[in-house]
Automatic annotation (TrEMBL):
It holds the Pfam family NTP_transf_9. This is DUF427 domain-containing protein. Gene3D superfamilies: Domain of unknown function (DUF427). It comes from the Bacteria. Residues 14-103 form the DUF427 domain.
Length: 113
C-alpha cells in the first residue's frame, strides 16, 4: 500500500490561469503519494472561487475518498475539470478537506513564488 504524506508546503504558492492569479497561499499543503509527483493543495479561502464552476465529474481514490471537480473559466477559455477537491476525505488524509488542487498544464501554472 502506498504511503501518503501531507506536510505544509514551504513558502508562498500561486495558481494562475488565463493570465489571472486564481489563488495565492502561504498555507498550502504538499501531498506526496508513492512515486507520484507531489501535489500542492490550496486552502479554499485562498482561491478565487468565482472563477471555478463545479462540474459533474468525480473520481474515487481508495486512499483519499471521492473527489469533486471544478472547471476554471478564464476570459479566453474554460479549462474543464482543472481543479479537484476532496469534500469528505478519508480520516488518514483529513487535512486536505476544504483544500483544492489543480492540474498544471500549458494554460495553468502552480508554482512557488
Amino acid at each position: 500500500m502506498t504511503d501518503i504524506t501531507i506536510r505544509k508546503a514551504e513558502g508562498t504558492w500561486v495558481v494562475r490561469a488565463g493570465g489571472a492569479v486564481l489563488g495565492e497561499s502561504k498555507d498550502a499543503l504538499e501531498l506526496s503519494e508513492g512515486s507520484l509527483a507531489p501535489v500542492i493543495y490550496f486552502p479554499r479561502g485562498d482561491v478565487a472561487m468565482a472563477f471555478l464552476d463545479k462540474s459533474d465529474h468525480s473520481t474515487h481514490c481508495p486512499k483519499k475518498g471521492d473527489a469533486s471537480y471544478y472547471s476554471i473559466v478564464t476570459k479566453s477559455t474554460t479549462l474543464e475539470n482543472a481543479a479537484w477537491s476532496y469534500e469528505a476525505p478519508k480520516e488518514d488524509v483529513a487535512r486536505i478537506k476544504d483544500y483544492l488542487a489543480f492540474y498544471g498544464s500549458d494554460t495553468l501554472a502552480v508554482e512557488r513564488v
